[in-house]
Design goal:
The structure is a single chain. Helix content is about 25%, strand content about 20%. The protein is an alpha+beta fold. The protein has three domains: about 55 residues, lambda repressor-like DNA-binding domains (434 Repressor (Amino-terminal Domain)), CATH 1.10.260; about 55 residues, no CATH class; about 55 residues, no CATH class. The strands form two sheets. The protein has a six-stranded antiparallel beta sheet with strand order 1-6-2-3-4-5, with no helix packed on it. Strand 4 and strand 5 form a beta hairpin. Helix 2 packs across helix 3.
């Protein structure tokens, strides 16, 4: 079940800017939480609970009985594993695995390393307090990129801060994609340094 940040705000008849002011955050930050592009901190969730007069379970979209939402979501396309360094994924056979994009494998708790090319299916983890949500759709092929004016770019890097800084919407050019501040990714580095998505 999706998170209910926007629903809770509307139940209180608050406009986006009003709620952002009362929470002490910027309007774009609240908007990114409501669209699930980013996740708030625990303290921010507690502030929203008090402001909207709802439970954390309601805000996070947990079931009426208070149980956690599914730990497993959609299947992860194999290519997407390259942008998920350090992220947990679920395997019905091995349980929780950690993605190691540098060595192109997934690591099980017992130390077993499963290459990205293995035949096991892995699934996204529902993560209520992650720094930011990763795309859940299959990455575009290089030829598909030119069909769009803008694409969402996810850098391939083990550096979390670099990934956060460079991810986002990029305009499609003839030989590269470029964001609003001039950062570029060349087509000849596709699937090595970056992946593109039509939606997030």
């Amino acid at each position: 079940m999706p998170r209910q940040f926007k629903t809770a705000r509307k139940m209180c008849n608050l406009k986006l800017y009003e709620a952002a002011n009362k929470l002490g955050i910027s309007q774009p930050t609240l908007s990114s939480w409501e669209s699930e592009r980013k996740s708030p901190t625990i303290d921010s969730i507690l502030k929203m609970c008090r402001l909207y007069n709802v439970s954390a379970d309601f805000l996070l979209g947990n079931s009426v009985g208070g149980g956690a939402s599914h730990d497993r979501e959609a299947e992860v396309p194999k290519l997407n594993l390259r942008i998920m360094h350090g992220q947990p994924v679920w395997s019905d056979e091995y349980g929780w695995l950690i993605v190691d994009s540098i060595n192109e494998c997934m690591i099980a708790p017992d130390g077993v390393k499963l290459p990205f090319t293995s035949t096991i299916n892995v699934y996204y983890k529902t993560d209520d307090f992650s720094e930011s949500a990763l795309p859940k759709t299959k990455a575009l092929s290089l030829t598909e990129i030119n069909e769009y004016e803008k694409v969402w770019v996810e850098p391939i890097s083990s550096d979390f801060n670099l990934r956060q800084e460079l991810r986002g919407w990029y305009a499609v050019m003839s030989d590269w994609v470029e964001n609003s501040v001039g950062n570029r990714f060349l087509y000849n580095t596709y699937k090595v340094k970056w992946l593109a998505f039509f939606e997030i």
